[in-house]
Amino acid sequence: MSTYRLDALFAPKSVAVVGASPREGSLGRIALRNLREGGFPGPIDLVNPRHAEIDGVKAVASLDALQTAPDVLVVTAPAPEVPGIIAAAGAKGVAAAVIISAGLGHGPGSLAEAARSAARAHGLRVLGPNGLGLIVPGVHLNASFARRTAAVGNLALISQSGAIAAGMIEWAAHHGIGFSAIASIGDAIDIDFGDLLDYFALDRHTGAILMYVESIRDARKFMSAARAAARTKPVIVIKTGRHAQGARAAATHTGALAGSDAVYDAAFRRAGLLRVLDLEELFAAAETLGRLHPFQGRQLAILTNGGGIGVLAVDRLIDLGGALAELSPETPAKLDAVLPATWSKANPVDIIGDADAA
User: Fold this and answer.
1) Residues in the chain with pLDDT < 70?
2) Can you tell me the distance from the alpha carbon of 130 to that of 261, in angstroms, rounded to the nearest whole number?
3) Quick one: which of 263, 213, 207, 269 has its CA closest to 237?
4) For the chain, which domains are there?
5) Which of 227, 246, 309, 330 is least enclosed by beta carbons within 10 angstroms?
6) Packing angle of the helix pair 193-202, 219-232 (nearest 10 deg)
7) CA gap 301, 310 in Å, rounded
8) pLDDT in tens, 232-262
């Protein structure tokens, strides 16, 4: 289904919450609070058969009682109720659902499979279950149970782990990094990495894509989407389960086998993705990409320790419509103080092959 109905998911005009609760600390209470405090500008409806009002917001007993179908349904109800809720939402005409609820199981005969079938019958898109939710700062949508919202920026985060997504939000808040969207796919019974890569590749608000991956179920779909996305913007991926023990842990987490790490590594390289090995490297990539902005002008200075490589760089720069910058009059004297005496005295700045690292 790829990007079908994802526009409604990432820029909804209305939202409804099923499972909102007055109980402090519950997922439903946190999700409702986040939606309201996040400043979502559209109507927020509540569906709860046991409470007529929650936090001053009127609730209805069922989806059928809503006058119009919301664009996005946020589901925090107990797992056994989720398939029926999804079936009712599809029949109502809801475009997409964010299922935060966990415990739906995996595979044939599970509640997750029942919810997936109900959604497919009506063309309803599902993010989750068993995830943190969805945050789109640019449209003031915080359909998650994160303890902190995210600032507006140009990084899109796709995470199979809700905890990793929450950690990224906390880290980014302390480093002044913002996001175009944060999508926690959890068990990914419908919307997966391939769908989101296709969407963010064409999203004008997204400058780079970060991914936390435990497993890929549809390899062909993923590779096609990854190659297309990597042609348009940087895509950084951290893949867990590099060792056998980690792979088994990932299987218990999201219900999917991680597979051979060497295969993943080769696939990422072939698609043009940059793989990082730990959260520290992922944070460093996020900080670098989060602070990059388009450069004004066409001029470039080139620094090289090989003359031939410098010439190739000049040729490619001209091919792409750029221009070689002229060194300012004071620059050579400054470079003389730090470079080998045999440097090129021009742009490209060739520091000669025997120059040391310093």
Assistant:
1) 1, 242-259
2) 24
3) 213
4) 1-130 (3.40.50.720), 150-294 (3.40.50.261), 299-350 (no CATH)
5) 330
6) 20
7) 10
8) 999 999 998 766 655 555 555 455 444 588 8
pLDDT tens for residues 224-233?
A: 999 999 999 9
Task: Return the pLDDT at 257.
Answer: 47
